[in-house]
Amino acid sequence: MKPQVLVCRRIFPETLERLREHFAVEANDADVVWSRDELIARLQGKSGAFLTGTQPIDATLLDACPDLRAVCSMAVGYNNIDVPACTARGVLVSNAPDVLTETTADFGFALMMATARRIAESEHFLRRGEWTKWSVDLFAGADVHGATLGILGMGRIGRAIARRGARGFAMPVVYHNRSRLDPAVEAELGARWLTKEELLATADHLVIVVPYSAESHHLVGEAELKRMKPTATLTNIARGGIVDDRALAAALRAGTIAAAGLDVFEGEPAVHPDLLTVANVVLTPHIASASLPTRRAMAELAADNLIAALDTRPGAALPPTALNPEVLGRRRL
After folding, report:
1. What is the predicted pLDDT for the residue at 333?
2. In whole angstroms, what is the distance from residue 221 CA to residue 205 CA?
3. CATH of the domain at 309
4. How buried is 85 (Cβ within 10 angstroms: 0-12 exposed, 13-18 middle, 19+ buried)?
5. Which of 302, 303, 308 is nearest to 329 (CA)?
6. What are phi and psi of 205, to 5 degrees?
């Protein structure tokens, strides 16, 4: 008998068919966002769960779903999963790093450019029929080429954004990271490490790509925004909650900084209402990795992990991007 797995949101048909070759699959073709209780009910008797990045997996849910042996996400971020709780119960966890790095960096750079050059503002102006003549300062924004690119969080995506700025736009690159990069990597990227406070004060265009955690909650708030240049822009493609959205809306309205581009929000898909009332912010619905080739690659990597995680044959392949591979071979507690 095939193991039973739950696919928590609608995914590509070819990935679903591949999973059905190995498992008895309960799919969510209607793409319903289940409540916590509904998720627990649907996980009964399931050995595995295919996540899309938002379904919460914590100790209480795990205790209510004793058959669960693997939770495999097609997202790179995993702050929705309590990995230590999974490890303690012998549940393998995986995410989908690497395959979305370049696509997300493309989008982050595009969002930063749209923010700097006021593209969304000017499009809305045109669509409202308000464009009647040329003027010398009509939606005049900030240059990107030659401006200082600041990166908060220099992981894979941060480094990919640094390469785009330094090589394509002749931007001096400064960054802050908890761990400083190797000098050879800094030299290759043309990047200079600064303290967080120095970074905020120096960057013309700040791009945020740190992972979300309790420590990074509201990492950029009212005090940090006040350290930035009034001509600066802020772009967040990391996770909602890293930026204090209320404080950001107030800073945009007050002219504390010039503009912002946001792909992620606290409590998404809800957006703080204050952000909807300021013109100088570009808002997108968490789509930084949303190219078809990349989303397909993310789904396939999650499938690879789930298939390997539930394969009990001797010598079976290991899940390629397991976060807690030590649980393999252990019995559930």
Report:
1. 37
2. 17
3. 3.40.50.720
4. middle
5. 308
6. -135, 110
- Tell me which H or E stretch contains 189: helix 183-189
Task: Give pLDDT, residue 71.
Answer: 98
Separation CA 30–CA 138 (nearest Å): 45
pLDDT at 330 (0 to 100): 60
Burial degree of 83 (CB within 10 A; 0-12, 13-18, 19+): middle
Name the token pair of 142: 């900030």
The answer on 183 and 62 residing in a single domain is no
**Regions in the chain scoring below 50 on pLDDT:** 331-333
Provide the annotated active-site residues.
Answer: 239, 268, 286
CA distance 254 to 268: 24
Spatial separation of the C-alpha atoms in residues 210 and 177, rounded to whole Å: 8
Domain that holds residue 150: 101-283
State the total domains in the chain.
Answer: 2
Q: Examine residue 230 and state whether it is found in any structural domain, yes or no.
A: yes
Same structural domain, 108 and 242: yes
Q: What residues contact 333, with CB distance under 8 A and at least 6 apart?
A: 88, 89, 90
333 found inside a domain: no
